[in-house]
Write a structure and sequence with these properties.
Asp_de-COase-like_dom_sf; alpha/beta; Mopterin_OxRdtase_4Fe-4S_dom; six-stranded mixed barrel; Dimethylsulfoxide Reductase, domain 2; oxidoreductase activity; binds iron/sulfur cluster; iron-sulfur; seven-stranded mixed beta sheet; single chain; Barwin-like endoglucanases; 26 helices; about 15% strand
């Protein structure tokens, strides 16, 4: 039997094709007919079968008995979860419960719809996720500028003539907040059609190597560089906001703020010649359809929100937002077009210990340890994790690992016993990838082309095995003091959507009977019916018969290669909370930060700083138990510039002790000319030695936990995002080998 599915392992969403043998995927290839990825896949996707068949995956729940995690039935595990959470709530209140979600949960069909009832049942504001060690500065910057909770423009990769990339390495990561299978091929295509690609990165990455120009910037100085571009654009009267210019407010304020950031003033700070900065600004302004795009290097850093605000400022000043060939706002197939976007809000409440603001209802993961450790009312006593491994992926995750054993209770929804879940009292393993349906709720807002796809489960659940939706629903019920049949909760998700849709102005089903709509849903599970309802009410949906050409679940099932609804199109008025809304080029929140940034022009920048890096075969901590993905040359090495290496007296293969203000690791050196002097690089997600032997492959892999070096006490002030790049470190050769 041939199976198809969208790869859930990164944001590229490649279509995969494979043989199903004995319930597992073998011979995994890129699906040649997939209308989005056209046969592309990376080594991770090719190993989806091995990941799914990993013998270390849990097949039954585990519960802690006499200090040991032992196998249990599902009923025993749920009963233990209910007992443990109830005991903590009884003693300390709901505010002592906390939730942490890891990155893979963003790729789950079940987590998005069931998250709201779960959080409601927990009854706590102690909500955390990996987002605050990742992309939140982009979301905050866009929220402040566009005033919308969901307006993030995406580079029009397939039509742009000029792409300026900062702090992103899509040739290895396959792209993020810009969903584009074969990102690397699309970058090549820009150059083949006469466009230019410029990469600004401390390291000559795989992406930088295929660009027209690489500017090796000093880490943490992207904001200075971007401000200098803004400065040149104003100084040389190059601003041209285009048709949306009348929406912009604060133009004069930005001009004033940019005054002190002349290229000549920031050149030494950034380590980039003023002439190169000026040339970059002029090229950007002159290009017919250009995009400035930044990712992790611009987010997980001090001034992350200011940096991402400046990216929006540049894109708006040059008239490239909402412009084909520039940046556009993709249409999500499951976001009802008749609903207006919600206004962006943050800081509605603050964390207990450090008073950091919530963003999208979450506190920064950088303060999770504080909230577990600090006594007082509201101290976290019980934790639920979903597909998360903060001990490895959060800043100073080592501290979190030291605190988890002190919790009163912990439950993890996770397929593995890893560095984090080994501390849980109950582990509930979700089904394998092939046993689950797939649709990317979140990523569909970042697709560079509207190709709509859905992957149904390929393999049935085992008798008695719950789907991830059932696990989440059952936990939600238990946390609400109920138990038993989850179907009522699942059904309520569908009926709530339908009930709202028949009352919403502009809805294709306005005034119809929700029961009649419900009867038209054909999905094979509550989760699939929920997806079906959202799809049919979405911008490409059939509106339950209103548009006979529109999409239904069946049309997607009939077309595993996807249904192409075309290129992104200008639609700014649709994504602003008000159709005639303004765009705030200079939000109040960034002004104080800009003053602090300006003061930093005189800062001391001597000594080594650490940055992260991505590799094609890895994705955070969740790919290292697949032999094919960790075989070959060791990838968790410390990249050191050859000049620095000579000065230290180390060579490739030597061991060096790397120390920060938070911790130290000893790691193999790899010397290179592809990194700025004074900068060293270590990938994260490694060093998985502490899984109690339950990750047989990852525990044997060489490598160290980069988050033993990062500092949770330092965050991007505006968003609370973790600072994972630009960490000051010292290097000490372990043995002088030369
Ligand atoms: S790039 Fe690789 S991991 Fe990402 S979706 Fe495609 S095959 Fe999967």
């Amino acid at each position: 039997m041939t199976g198809y599915r969208i790869c859930p392992l990164c944001e590229s969403t490649c279509g995969l094709e494979f043989k199903v043998e004995g319930g597992f995927a073998v011979d995994v290839r890129g699906h040649e007919n997939d209308l989005f990825s056209r046969g592309y896949l990376c080594p991770k996707g090719a190993n989806l079968g091995a990941l799914d068949a990993d013998p270390d995956r849990l097949k039954t729940p585990l519960i802690r008995r006499d200090g040991e995690l032992v196998q249990a039935t599902w009923d025993e595990a749920f009963a233990e979860a209910a007992r443990g959470f109830a005991a903590v709530r009884e003693a300390h209140g709901s505010g002592a419960l906390a939730l942490y979600r890891g990155n893979p949960s963003a790729h789950s069909l079940a987590v998005t719809p069931y998250l709201r009832p779960l959080i409601k049942a927990l009854g706590t504001k102690q909500i955390y996720s990996a987002s605050t060690a990742d992309q939140v500065p982009t979301q905050v910057a866009c929220g402040l500028v566009y005033g919308s909770a969901a307006a993030i423009p995406v580079p029009d990769l397939d039509r742009t003539s000029h792409l300026l990339i900062l702090g992103a390495n899509p040739a290895e990561s396959n792209g993020s907040l810009c969903t584009a299978p074969d990102f690397r091929g699309r970058l090549h295509a820009i150059r083949e059609r006469g466009g230019t690609v410029t990469v600004v990165d401390p390291r000559r990455t795989r992406t930088a190597r295929l660009a027209d120009r690489h500017l090796p910037i000093r880490p943490t100085t992207d904001a200075y560089f971007l401000f200098a571009l803004v400065h040149v654009i104003f100084e040389e009267d190059l601003e041209n906001p285009g048709p949306h210019g009348d929406r912009l407010t604060g133009l004069a304020d930005v001009r004033e703020l940019a005054a002190v950031f002349a290229p000549e003033a920031v050149a030494d700070v950034c380590g980039i010649a003023a002439a190169d900065i000026r040339a970059t600004a002029r090229e950007l302004a002159a290009a017919q359809g250009a995009a400035v795009y930044g990712r992790m290097g611009t987010c997980a850093t001090s001034y992350g929100t200011v940096t991402n605000w400046l990216i929006q400022v540049l894109n708006l000043l040059t008239g490239n937002v909402d412009r084909p060939g520039g940046l556009l706002f993709p249409v999500s197939p499951t976001r009802a077009a008749y609903l207006r976007e919600q206004p962006f809000r943050m800081g509605r409440w603050h964390s207990r210990v450090r008073e950091l603001p919530e963003v999208f209802g979450e506190f920064p993961v950088a303060t999770l340890a504080d909230e577990i450790e600090t006594p007082g009312e509201g101290r976290i006593r019980a934790l639920l994790t979903i597909a998360g491994n903060p001990v490895v992926s959060a800043p100073n995750g080592v501290r979190i690992g030291e605190l988890l054993p002190g919790l009163d209770f912990m439950v993890s929804i996770d397929p593995y016993v890893n560095e984090t879940t080994r501390h849980a009292d109950v582990i509930l393993p979700p089904p394998r990838v092939l046993q689950s349906g797939h649709y990317d709720w979140a990523l569909s807002s970042f697709f560079v082309r509207a190709v709509v796809r859905y992957s149904p489960p390929v393999v049935d659940l085992a008798p008695g095995q719950p789907g991830e939706d059932e696990i989440l629903a059952r936990l939600s019920l238990l946390l609400s003091g109920q138990d038993g049949d989850t179907s009522a909760l699942s059904e309520s998700l569908v009926t709530t959507v339908l009930g709202k849709s028949v009352k919403s102005a502009g809805s294709p089903v306005l005034g119809r009977d929700p029961a009649e709509l419900r009867a038209q849903l054909n999905g094979s599970s509550p989760l699939e019916r929920y997806f079906e309802a959202m799809l049919r009410l979405g911008p490409f949906g059939d509106g339950f018969g209103a548009d006979p050409e529109g999409l239904t679940l069946q049309s997607l099932l009939d077309h595993p290669e996807g249904i192409d609804r075309g290129e992104m199109r200008p639609r700014l008025a649709e994504v602003l909370p008000e159709a005639d809304g303004k765009i705030d080029l200079c939000p109040d929140a960034v002004r104080d930060e800009v003053a602090s940034l300006a003061a930093g022009l005189r800062g001391d920048r001597t000594g080594f700083v650490l940055i992260g890096r991505r590799t094609l075969r890895s994705n955070n901590s969740w790919m290292h138990n697949v032999p094919n993905l960790v075989s070959g040359p060791q990838r968790c090495t410390l990249l050191v510039n050859e000049t620095d290496a000579d000065r230290l007296g180390v060579a490739t293969g030597d061991r060096v002790r790397v120390a920060s203000g938070k911790g130290a690791v000893t790691v193999d050196v790899e010397t290179t000319l592809d990194i700025r002097p004074g900068v060293v690089s270590l990938p994260h997600g490694w060093g998985q030695r502490s899984s109690n032997g339950r990750l047989g492959v990852a525990a044997r892999a060489e490598g160290v936990n980069a988050n033993a070096l990062t500092d949770e006490s330092i965050v991007d002030v505006l968003s609370g995002n973790a600072v994972l790049n630009g960490v000051p470190v010292s290097l000490e050769p372990e043995v002088a080998t030369r």
